[in-house]
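Task 17 of the worksheet. Students: predict the tertiary structure of the chain below and write it out as structure tokens. Keep your answer in the requested format; marks are given for formatting as well as content.
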Amino acid sequence: MSRFNHLKTVADYRYLIVGGTTKAATTSLFTYLADHPAICAATYKETRFFLSIDYPLPSKYRYKGDVEAYNLLFSDTDETQFRMESTPDYLYCEDARERIATSLPYAKLVFSLREPISRLISWYRFARQIGKLPQILDFDAYVELLFTALNNDKKAEEQHLQTLQQGCYTIYLKHYFDRFGPERIHILFYEKLAAQPSDTMTELCHFVGIDAGFYSDYGFKVTNRTQQMRSSELHRKYRDFRFRLRQWTHNKPIIHIPLRTIRRTIEPFYLRLNTQTDEKIQMSEETRHRLIDYYTPDVQVLGKLIGKPIPWETWRKSS
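Model answer:
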């Protein structure tokens, strides 16, 4: 096969990139899409392939000028299927945006958004769950920490210290809309996906151009829910082990598929042992108003950018 024909074949593949904010049900969304027969999912959810080298998330593969290694992440596919992956942090990475635009010139993109204050609370829970924040640090103190990091001359490198500004979605989305055009971008909302998954997936299928009837009797289950852990250190080690094992086995289906089945069987038992009832997160009125004041300008222009109403009651009442 000539170099020309090889590149033509790669260009003819169809890609669906799921991004959006973190803590916005992108894992569940990945699972729902992966089950669709018109979709070939990457061998693991977050490939992080197009992120910049210095982005504070590890990955086995990083972009090196072409998509050869990227296409190896999709096994048992054919040219009629969409190749789909989900890396939420693509939204925040300028290099990722440009690499996707250059390497996958006809890709369609989906971004899942979540009401920014509830997202921040979820991130706070998650950071404590994986041991990035001490258990004694309350939410008000976390918010103060974020504002301090935001105003610091040196940009915070830790992901859990970047979460305040990352809730200002317009800052990042406007560059995607300029680069790709609105016809190639679909915005959905975590809240609607949770409350009306069938309707949300139907709209997404119409955007992608695949059969929406698949989800008419589909059993929607929530995956990767943020939970309160009894031992954050044990959970950190468990997550690290799972990540390393997946990196090693993802391109070895004879090993990866049985291990994935085993994990899905035993993980509920592990979570039952290492989770406890979620504590109610306390937030002072001062912190709540501070966050509303911070996010309101962005929320007000977000609807104009994406061309659809924002389903966040909090912001209608406070506007």
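Marker's comment: Residues 1-9 have pLDDT under 50 and may be disordered. The first helix runs from residue 3 to 12.
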